[in-house]
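As a warm-up, study this chain.
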Amino acid sequence: MQLQEDMLFESEKWPIIDADCKNRQVLVLLKGKGENLVQLNGETIMTGSTGHSKIRFTKEHFCLLNDRTLSFYTLAGEFVSDCEVGPFIFELMPYQQGVLCSYGDEGVFGNRNGQNRLNYAAPFQQLESYYDIAVQNQLLYDPLFARYKPYACLGFRTESNELLFLDAQLKKQKALAAPFDTGNVIAFALTHELGVFLKENQFIVWEFGTTGKVMDYPGSFDYNTRSIFARHESMFLIITDHEVNALKMDGVYY
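Now compare it with the structure written out below.
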């Protein structure tokens, strides 16, 4: 098996801060001269202040993170609403009408927003704590999520090497013990039959839905690689200063 890399976007002028893709749409956050720009499929749809660090598609909108503030916009670049989400955001994962906010520093748990390990932010709503869900699933911090039936998660009790399957309410459905070390996985993606897990120097294919076989291959990946959370023909997104690339495996649709 091989991972194929396709370039989705190239910027010759402005450095790329972050990007996201959904089906065949590519959303890119760029660092302009004294401003940040958002482009959708190569067309600039808005410009704004500097300081934005993350961009994600949501179900009907997109959102931008600037320090502790998460703002939602229409796909035409029109402002919808914003809310304070707190510091140390590690990841934003599309969920329901908004995004799940996971935090990359345990110190945030007792600051400003209370003992939060996981929060839900959506347009026209106050930040909602998913602390109970985080405790139930024993999420520590920096949890790794992927879409599958509809969600799956690593990152809780990493020494147990479990892949946790969640329903639409993020309740645990089942857990499978992975026959390899998941503690240093950078990103993963699942289909109904197999999972692809990326580490710095290898990628692992686990046929958990069929044979249970585990195959590992050499590779080179860094922490700019993450799972594509929305449905897409590719599995992973790689963001560099001037390119957005996607990784997919031969014959596999994510």
